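Fold it.
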Amino acid sequence: MHAFIVVSHPDPGSLTHAVAEQVCHSVQSATAPGTHTAELADLAAEGFDPRFTAADLALHLQHAPPPPDVAAEHARLDRADALVLVYPVYWWSFPALLKGWIDRVFTQGYAYEEGAGGKLAKKLGHLQVHLLGIGGADTGTYERHGYSEAMKTQIDHGIFGYCGAPVATSRLLLQSSQQDMAAAHLAAARELGSCLFPPSS
């Protein structure tokens, strides 16, 4: 089985990148060589353009085919059995680069289909989703202000639920600036990667 791991952070030396790399390595080494595969997409290094342009609007209105960069991301998702998003929490949500990737790639006609009379076809039921947000605040801050639930409503339900993609795990790895917590977050990433697919698959 194949995992598509998307990381969104401008610094390749960041903890966010280290977490994504640990997930990727653990998927590949969890079972016999070649049993499971993983592809790591670094949106910043690849220069993905997050801006929703007239070409994207034309695709949404089903007046034009996907722009080449969007079609390439669709092909990557088509190869995947699991999607893992690894990102820093900016203002209690995705970074703009990752949000723009969602805006442009999870498109009408591909991720969902709005039919006559408002009938919705959810088209990504085959894609298991895992979310790993890296945050600096502590758990108490997230719970006290309701940020955790707000993020789950917006991201888990609002995006992936709308497309029918089941969110298998959704975790916030917090207090990431503390050295002992960073080590724990890398261990959590290794655990996720090693358990992403069942041994018999």
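The longest strand covers residues 82-88.
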